[in-house]
Amino acid sequence: MKKREHLGRYIALAGIFLLVCLIYIGRLVNLQIAGQDYYTMTSGGKTSTRTVTIQALRGQIYDRNGVALVTNKYSYDVSFEATTLPAKNADKNPLIMSVIARVRDFGAEYDTPEGPFTLERNGEKFVFSWNTSYLYKDDGSYTVYASRLMRLLDDLGAKFPKNPQTQTENEEENTPDRDIPLPEADDCAALLLKRYGLTYTEKKKTYYTYNAEETRELFCFRLDMELRNFAPLNPYLIAENAPLELITLLSEGSSRGISVKTNVERVYGVPGYASHILGRVGKIQPDKTEYYDSLGYSLDAIVGVSGVEKAFEDQLRGIDGQLTVIEDSEGNVIDEYVSKEPIAGNDVYLTIDIEYQKIVEDSLDANIAYIRALAEDKEGELDGEDARAGAFTVMNIKTGAVLAVASNPTFDLSTFDEDYASLSKNSSSPLFNRALNGAYTPGSVFKPGVAVAALNEGIITPYTEIMDEGVYRYYEETGFAPRCWINLMFGSSHGLLNVTEAIQVSCNCFFYEVGRRLGIEKMNEYCKGYGLGEHTGIELDEAVGTLGGPEYRIEHGLNAWSPGDTVQAAIGQMDNTFTPLQLSCYIATLVNGGTRYGAHILQDVRSHATGAIIYKVQTEALNKMMLSDEAVSVVLNAMKNVTEDTGSAARLFTGYPLAVGGKTGTAQVSENKSANAVFTAFAPFDDPEIVGTTVIEQGAGGTDAGYAVRDVFTHYFNLDFKDAYDEFRDRYLEERGAITNSPNAKDPKAEENTNGTAGENDEKG
Fold first, then answer.
1. CATH assignment of the domain containing 720
2. Minimal CA–CA distance to 757: which of 578, 587, 586?
3. Is residue 315 part of a domain?
4. pLDDT tens digit string along 275-324?
5. Which of 3, 340, 558, 664 is 20 to 30 Å from the Cα of 288, by its Cα?
6. In whole angstroms, what is the distance from residue 309 CA to residue 303 CA?
């Protein structure tokens, strides 16, 4: 029994010892995590107290399966701080040499600074000459550092020549004549060496304090410090990205004069993908200072500026801690303790599957390239040869969860800083998130919503037939007679059609008449219920687009709305512009029988420390429309016909092993550009799970924009299907070096700039 008691005590003591060790290690690490310091002198002036900000870890970002998308990495910058360096030059040099040696031994980013002097070794001494490349600009004027050096030398009593110096025989032949006077380099160096305590005089003879190599090192270092205005508020950077081992070693010796700044960098798990979704972090902008200050942020804090980083800033941000450091009058650390523990931010889990996200982005990129390849085999212009950009959204119909958001062209967050200059100048605007902020004319993708409204209101029945003569003549006497796309392209007409047939072949004239009968007010009432021109509910910044009508015209001081505008609006033209995500939400609402779920990209929020779920998103219905089952069924079946037989998207799904409902849309944007291509579809038809929408700028035809959607469906449902496009895609992605082009690496089903307005003759279905 006693042995058991003794054993228990030993275990307890061992546990306490381990805890003490962990606390000590934690305090040692915390010591290195330095923010902005301030000093408060205690009574007697024998010690000082320094408070150091301990930067809290920012929360991390994961996909729905727990794959890390954004994590953190500490980096450390080592600097000399003027307020705590020894006052005497003789005391500064040993400390500087010691720090330099340790930095270099650890392989941190440190190089002896270049200076205005070229030093040549002559035994244990140096011969100094001017390094003119350091002193002069191309036009022969002084650099900033040269100006500072000249002032310093003048203060030290250097002898400047009375006449301007011209090119000397020591300078290179191609060096232009200089009109700036310079004293002798050796004389100047002698004054500076003495100033820095690197030489001393005995019996009128000058001696070096250090050997030749050390003298050179210290001379260049000290002079560079001075020329860079080393001062209490301007530390001198010694090493960037120093390893933690170096920081620990420096702290073990005298830390006098040394300042360590901790930088917390974001690390991206899958570079080049999901960049528009994840977003960036950055320093607080001047116009936001007051706002963030009210929330308790320090002025040098890093905050989310776009995407998920911005949307969930209140969850991802941590709470900084404080380290209290007590130093003696010489600047040596006597004691330190954590006066306030930092608290890491919470981790955010998204609804996207990163493997599926990669497939979506790659598919969109390949689809755009395919349209350009198709254009090479077509005669004439404006057939998609100018396609260079697009967007793609995929969402869960039953929950509103966004499975993927793609905008093309894109960028790489891991190299954003070095790429920013070229990205910002790129005419294709790769930084712009087209999926959430691009507002596009929908074209014929708009027609199913108009059909549901007309059927639900009794304006038409499933059996109502309307004659398409190729030209809509209701307003012909006023000079307004818009034509159907088939008349424009082939000089023919669709003849007598019911609503199912009209959707299948995308007949404009049928919907001109339906729109006239329905009226713009009733049409827009339904469209608002579908979420068109409304926020989708997604947590990220998004555009709301435009739902065209009289109210919009009045609000923006435009020409009054006319009856002709209504018939054009009925085919998705005029002022109507919507985001790709809005179009996906609209189709999902139709499929759900009028129930509109809020789109969301957040799955849940978890504690960084414990992993416990703090908040979980619940499926939320934004509104419920009273739609008849018959109206919805008729339209959805018509959308199925679009992908079959003679439908406008039939060639996309010939032989496809899954029943799909879809709709094509084409909208002209200008006379000198190919039309925008829009395609939206849901699958499987019998029990819809997902909806995907593609918009390809200058994609020419809505059908051609559907290859990416089909590709994504193939991967999502793990289907065995391949045609000429798939062969092109595989070759293209292989040549491009895409990370993924293989199906269904992870099952995404595991979880529950406006381009102008098209005219009347621009829609071809």
1. 3.40.710.10
2. 578
3. no
4. 999 999 998 887 788 888 888 887 778 899 999 999 999 999 988 888 88
5. 340
6. 8
Asked if residue 248 belongs to a domain, the reply is: no
The per-residue pLDDT for range 119-178, each reduced to its tens digit, is: 887 776 788 888 888 888 777 777 887 888 888 998 998 888 765 544 444 444 444 444
Angle at CA 297, nearest 5°, toward 291 and 303? 85
Residue 472 resides in a domain: yes
Cβ–Cβ under 8 Å, residues 497 and 507: yes
Task: Write out the two tokens for 479.
Answer: 């000079």
Residue 47 located in a structural domain: no
Both tokens of 564, joined, read: 């002709």
Count the Cβ atoms, other than its own, within 10 Å of residue 157. 8
**Phi, psi (5° rounding) for residue 79?**
-135, 155
Confidence bin at 32 (pLDDT 50/70/90):
very low
Structural domain tally of the chain? 1
Contact assessment for residue 367 and residue 705, using Cβ atoms and an 8 Å cutoff: yes
Query: In 531-649, which residue ranges form alpha helices assigned H by DSSP?
Result: 550-555, 563-569, 580-591, 629-642
CB within 8 Å of 647: residues ≥ 6 apart: 504, 505, 641
- Helices 706-716 and 724-736 pack at an angle, to 10 degrees, of 90
| CA neighbor of 325 nearest in space, from 341, 344, 338 | 338
**Mode of pairing for the β-strands spanning 602-606 and 466-468:** unpaired
Distance CA 347, CA 368 (A): 35
State CA 553 to chain mean position distance.
35
Instruction: Determine the Cα–Cα distance for residues 455 and 464; give it in Å rounded to an integer.
Output: 10
Q: Print the domain residue range for 532.
A: 354-750
Give the phi and the psi of residue 351 in degrees, each rounded to 5. -85, -10
Give all strands (DSSP E) within 367-463, no chain letters.
Answer: 389-396, 402-408
pLDDT (tens digit per residue) in 691-705: 999 999 999 889 999
Report helix, strand or coil for 386: coil
Pull the structure tokens for residue 611: 């992993």
| Sequence-distant (≥ 6) Cβ neighbours of residue 83 within 8 angstroms | 39, 232
The answer to whether the peptide bond before residue 94 is cis (omega within 30 degrees of 0) is: no
